[in-house]
Queue: 4 jobs
Job 1
Amino acid sequence: MSLLKKIYEPLLAQLKQGVTPAKLAQSVAFGVVLGSLPVIGVTTSLCLVAAAVFKLNHVAIQTVNYLVYPVQIALIIPFLRMGEWLFNVSPASLDIKIMLHEFRLEFLLSMEKYGMTALRGVAAWAIVAPLAFVFIFFIAKIIFEKVLKKVQPKS
């Protein structure tokens, strides 16, 4: 099954079941934005909470969240580096051998160092996320409105 079908078919099914283009676009935007958070292992829970709080479509938000996982991986280092730049701190080494050595040598100090690096990455993401959300929402809404017009029975 092609990637396009994996995205298109579940979302089209939601439109056919009565989900509005705006709510579906909001679900997609939250799925992309929360799914790109530079912290592995928390996006599914965040999407679940967002869907409950904002009354979004769970199928759509989680489908998109899972599909953007490669994007999340690709954006981790850029967000970490952007966070270091924003806070004007020296870049932390992200070489796995160096990191393992540092953790073996000084575990708590390494937890603090890499924890702060992660927090700065989240801060960078938090700056980009609202802009990305608005952009994705409006583009997705336009697309879903056009798709809905095509699939609605003409009366």
Job 2
Amino acid sequence: MGLFPALQLCGEVVERIPVETRRLDDISEIEDLDFLKIDIQGSELSVFQNGQQKLAEAVAVQTEVSFITWYLDQPSSGEVDAELRGQGFIPHCLAQLRRRPIGDFEVGDDALPWVNQLTEADIVYVRDFTHPDLMTDEQLKHLALIAHHCYGSFDLVFRCVQLLEERHVVETGSSQRYLSLPRTY
């Protein structure tokens, strides 16, 4: 934390409160999971490892990863990536990228262009569409909806609709009609 003075106050422990947790796979209230957005301060990997059944049908996961270790025993971004890839997801886009100045570096009000140290990012992983034979029609539909409405990933939507056309789930020409829609993202 000494290298990032702006965050030192965030690292001060002021109180400890025990909290009961459950494995994602043990939460009966969650029957079907299409999309998971998670940011739990370095414990994301544990959730993924203990949620493989719930995540088996999911088509998208947005997770925070850290490139700098902030928490005790925090897994690396590589470990999170390996776990999600092992569960059939691939990185799709960066929803947010955070950079911070190292040390007491200051260049006035316009320091951001000179700051390049990656600290955290929200990465969106999607079900591996390069292997569409492993995806159901419903998964393709849900991925298309999430990609369009949450991320403006029109190319991914187009690919999903093309695959649905090939499977005769949607009308021939649906992907071309999608291309003709106005882009308002």
Job 3
Amino acid sequence: MPKQSPIPDALDKPFYDACNEERLVVQYCANCLRYQFPPRPACTRCGSNSTVEWRQLSGRGRIVSRVVVHDTPTSSLIPGQPFKRRGYRTG
């Protein structure tokens, strides 16, 4: 059965690792002085891949949209999901 959630790869693993530490990080291009999301191998504006780095955001901002993530009812898929569960009970 295919996994229902993203499987982190080398490109977006820093994002999921930070989420599991309750931090928000986004790629930033030091050449263009701009943030980009979703993660890309290079800056979408200047094309540089040597100036793109991960930066932690302050956590301040304005919510313009929200998403509710529901856990999978199939317990065999839970270990493969890229984010931790709080209060998850088995059985």
Job 4
Amino acid sequence: MSTNATSIMKRWDWRAIVFTVLAGLAALLFIMNIYRLTAPWAPLAWLPKDDPRQLNPELHRWHTAMWGAVSGVLNGGVLLSLLWRPRQKLLLIQYIALMVIVAAPIMLPFEPSLLIVILMVALVVIAYPAPRKLLDFSQDEPLSRPLLMFSLVAAVLLVPYMVRLELWQIQGIGGEHAIANQWVSDVEHTAFLLLALFLASTKRPGWRTLGILTGLVFIYLGVAALVLPNYAGSWGVTGGILALIGGLLYIAATIREARKAMSDSSKALPSVAPNIVGR
């Protein structure tokens, strides 16, 4: 092996180490929010109150639940998955990159202090061991029609919800909810969910993980909405039922599509084998 090749391998090894450290720290930062999943059921004294603008934590149960689900389960789960063989999960790091691009214009006008968190996550993207692949959106498999259908239905139902909350935030409607920027926080988290849905439907490397995590978040938020139907920002009873059923069906569709992909690849092997033997 040449000296040049050895130096290249060492450089990539160090890049992988740096990425693992940064992704691990970011994963820990997000996964710490999992305790917020107790928000629909926790006694008032146990509810998190980490923002002095939230004078009454009871009002913010739904916001807290959504924060825990999207930040702790979806984003934390994606980052945790990237700690193992990140080069084989290109879609996951692209989700993180797009998450940064989506979060900045939504949140920074209202919460400039979040710039630190956004920059930290951006560093994870920059440190990715295969940076040239970040702009690779090529398709090895066709789009999943079932997952794309779920994504489009979710967008139709959730985009009006996001627009309404954004208007409330801009107009300062809702007292503490607007003062603590809870409306725009829900807009951001909903945008992450829609982003994950559409990316998973591409069936690019890492799509199974993204699909399962997104389905789990919808199931949880469906239950949370049924427990908190009248809380500010909640999806209500109808939305909760749709999210619960949709999440279950989305996971089932993800598993079915994954099995189909494995079956198709195994069927293709015999046709390739003779060519290899012939050579």
